[in-house]
Design brief:
Length: 764
């Protein structure tokens, strides 16, 4: 082995050379010792073993949780319950530059309402795109209840690509739910309002002028975007539509949306009226809305709609005349509506009823075919008698809300809010199988792929509204408690409590991790928010700064460990636009970018191009720097924005000189030679094995080759400077060669470790 200089060795160690020997100096505690010390039972150990994911191994399922009032999506693994990512959706998320770079600001701007930014959201229901009713892992959709919007997240990069504003609602809750091939994303209103924008009608005209509805957003899978122009809504009575679900199998082409407050009550405590809570739960039944959405889509094509706010709406009288809308009474103040995996039944729970009702799609169809209706509602919508549609009703417990399904046929799980329990039951035979207590007051619950046609069973997560005493106290605002439950046996077993501290997640969906195939890098120069080439992208050597009037535009690059350019000069009042392309290809080599005090931040993952823009409205000196600890020389990855006063003239030329001698130059050259030996040995190893079979290694080798490719230019420079006895320039350009080498060695060592750990084979 060659000798390294004193400085080289620790650096290369830091860069990834691992120490082989693990220390065994302390006396090992036995499992029994640990159990005793931590007061753990056999049951605890079993639960730990079922959830523990050792280093290097991965979770079986990936959960996408609504982030509630955070306006984000939380991604975590199951069974470990480790948080993997927060996805900025309706709310700025600084780490990802979401809302701080121009490209993501353009996405958030799609969510403006009446010309105003809305920078928070109340996310409730995520939905994964489906093919033939099974999760396909391509897209995720999520609603904003407070400001009626829906967002599209692409699961190739877990980034929000689109936000669409509902054109006729003021709040929406019954979304996002997808049809079996993601033709439409269903979104139902919550609180009735006039459908015309900015139209005032007094509450006295609730029954005549206020309306609910359901929007069917057309999804273009190829573009990965909702097409608002091809989307439509159905006008509904001012009942408070709640949740929805799409039919599947025999019920394909239909959708189901329940409602509460069909009393159409108007409260007014301040006027001496009983509050909404009394008036909205007075009657024993509300209405399940049954919609033939396939036929509705045809009506839209035939032009049988009214344009409201430029949006196609099928009015109630058309829906009744064309036979696409029916009601069925459902008890009492219902919340969840969940179609069974085989599409034969629709399960509805009344919050204020101890029963859960199982409706038969076959019976519903028979009643419709025979025009067998018990009445019409005040808007002329035919009402099917409950007894003509029910398959069975089962007494589950207090406060039943939501239902999810098992891989075992006929087995369902329903959350019991008031009882703080999960009930396992058989909906075909109508009997309770098991119950488990949760902590506390469960809202939704979720089984693996449990609302698809092929639930995967195994685990259930209880989304508890209250945590109370479960965690170390952190003040009056407690975290939420997601509890993992093993459902593989007849008896449910509680495995794990996970505190979630980012808002109240209402619903979660979980997908088999193997179905997700996210990328690790972008094609160089991609705008990740449009998935198109970014017009500001440049390759190495093409970096340029231009000025037009008071507009300064920088097209720069990021690569370990420098930002090109390293100086940006401006005059006070200039408008600065900085486009930055991350030239790295190696996995996880993200650079961040910010400029002091200008409230901009961008995250540039490998290949991505991002833009930040601001007005340099104050003179001064503002460092900009890379915000990710991307390499040993990360702290040096910086530059200066110089904002000069108007008409400023330089008084001094030339930068201050360092004190370098010929000896310094010679020492640097020797360091370069020594380091090259390390690189050669690593290269020797990599090329001795089948590295080309590992795309991640190929990317690292490409990056390393890039770094090495810059050496001849630096070499010419240090030699020319040495010839002129300019020891500063000679030494520093030689030093720059060493920088390229260190980055090459870093990549090489990472590649070597990867190959060793992934079973690379010798080639001759
Ligand atoms: S909702 Cu919150 S517990 Cu918005 Cu689906 Cu039921
Ligand atoms: Cu790039 Cu730090």
């Amino acid at each position: 082995m060659k000798k390294f200089t004193q400085r080289t060795v620790p650096l290369l160690l830091a860069a990834g050379m691992s120490l082989a020997a693990a220390t065994t100096a302390w006396s090992a505690e036995s499992l029994q010792d640990v159990m005793k010390r931590r007061s753990l039972s056999q049951q605890d150990l079993l639960a730990a073993a079922k959830t523990y994911v050792p280093t290097g191994k991965r979770d079986e399922f990936v959960a996408f949780s609504s982030g509630g009032q955070s306006g984000q999506v939380i991604v975590y693994g199951i069974p470990s319950m480790r948080i993997l990512k927060y996805i900025g959706v309706f709310t700025p998320e600084p780490w990802q530059g979401y809302g701080f770079d121009e490209n993501s600001k353009a996405v958030l701007a799609q969510g403006r309402i009446d010309g105003k930014d809305i920078t928070w959201g109340d996310t409730h229901h995520p939905a994964i795109s489906e093919t033939n009713g099974e999760y396909d892992g391509q897209f995720l959709f999520i609603n904003d209840k407070a400001n009626p919007r829906i967002a599209v997240i692409d699961l190739r990069d877990f980034e929000t690509k689109q936000i669409v504003v509902n054109p006729i609602f003021k709040s929406e809750h019954g979304g996002a739910f997808v049809t079996t091939n993601t033709e439409y994303i269903i979104e139902a209103a919550q609180y009735p309002t006039p459908l015309e924008n900015k139209k005032f009608y007094p509450l006295e005209e609730m029954n005549e002028k206020y309306r609910g509805g359901i929007t069917y957003w057309k999804f273009d899978r190829k573009e990965g975007r909702i097409q608002p122009k091809e989307s439509f809504s159905l006008e509904l009575p001012p009942y408070w539509q709640d949740l929805s679900d799409a039919g599947k199998g025999p019920s394909e082409g239909w959708s189901f949306t329940n409602s509460f407050c069909s009393e159409r009550y108007v409260g007014g405590i301040e006027k001496g009226r009983p509050p909404y809570e009394a008036g909205c739960s007075a009657k024993d039944t509300d209405y399940l809305h049954v919609v033939n959405w396939k036929k509705a889509a045809e009506l839209v094509k035939q032009g049988k709609t009214k344009k409201i706010n430029g949006h196609d709406v099928i009015m109630m009288d058309t829906a009744v005349k064309e036979g696409i809308l029916f009601l069925i009474p459902e008890p009492k103040s219902p919340h969840g509506v969940d179609v069974t995996p085989d599409g034969k039944f629709i399960i509805v729970s009344g919050k204020l009823d101890t029963h859960t009702s199982v409706y038969s799609f076959e019976k519903i169809q028979a009643a419709i075919q025979a025009s067998k209706f018990e009445s019409k509602d005040p808007y002329g919508i035919p009402v099917i008698a409950m007894k003509d549609a029910l398959h069975t009703q089962v007494q589950l417990g207090l406060g039943p809300l939501h239902t999810q399904y098992d891989s075992k046929s006929c087995v369902a799980y329903t959350s019991l809010y008031v009882d703080s329990q999960v009930a396992k039951w058989n909906y075909c035979e109508g009997k309770v199988l098991d119950k488990i207590s949760v902590h506390y007051n469960i809202g939704h619950l979720m089984t693996m792929e449990g609302d698809s046609t092929k639930p995967a069973g195994r685990y259930l997560v209880a989304l508890n509204k209250l945590a109370i005493d479960r965690f170390v106290p952190v003040g009056p605002l407690h975290p939420q408690n997601h509890q993992l439950i093993d459902i593989s046996d007849d008896k449910m077993q509680l495995l794990y409590d996970m505190p979630l501290p980012l808002g109240e997640p209402h619903y979660v969906v979980a997908i088999d991790a193997k179905k997700l195939k996210p990328g690790v890098r972008y094609k160089v120069g991609t705008d990740s928010r449009t998935d198109k080439p970014h017009p500001g992208a440049v390759r190495a050597g093409e970096e340029v700064t231009t000025r037009k009037g008071n507009k300064v535009e920088v097209k720069g690059t990021l690569i370990r460990s420098h930002i090109t350019p390293e100086t940006i000069e401006a005059e006070v009042g200039d408008e600065i636009t900085i486009h930055l392309t991350n030239l790295e290809r190696a996995q996880d080599e993200t650079h961040g970018f910010t400029v002091s005090t200008y409230n901009v931040h961008a995250s540039a993952e490998p290949g991505k191009t991002v833009t930040v823009k601001f007005k340099a409205d104050k003179e001064g000196v503002y460092p900009y720097y890379c915000t990710e600890f991307c390499s040993a020389l990360h702290l040096e990855m910086m530059g200066y924005l110089l904002v000069k006063p108007k008409g400023w003239k330089p008084t001094k030329t030339g930068l201050a000189k360092g004190n370098y001698t010929e000896a310094d130059y010679k020492a640097t050259l020797k360091k370069v030679v020594d380091t090259q030996a390390v690189i050669d040995s690593v290269v020797g190893y990599i090329t001795s094995v089948n590295f080309k079979d590992f795309p991640d290694v190929v990317a690292m080798v490409e990056d390393a080759t890039d770094q090495l490719g810059k050496i001849p230019d630096a070499k010419a420079k240090h030699e020319a400077a040495a010839a002129k006895k300019d020891w500063e320039q000679a030494n520093l350009w030689a030093e720059q060669i060493w920088q390229y080498q260190v980055k090459t060695a870093d990549l090489g060592l990472r590649a070597k470790t990867y190959l060793e750990q992934n079973g690379a084979k010798k080639v001759k």
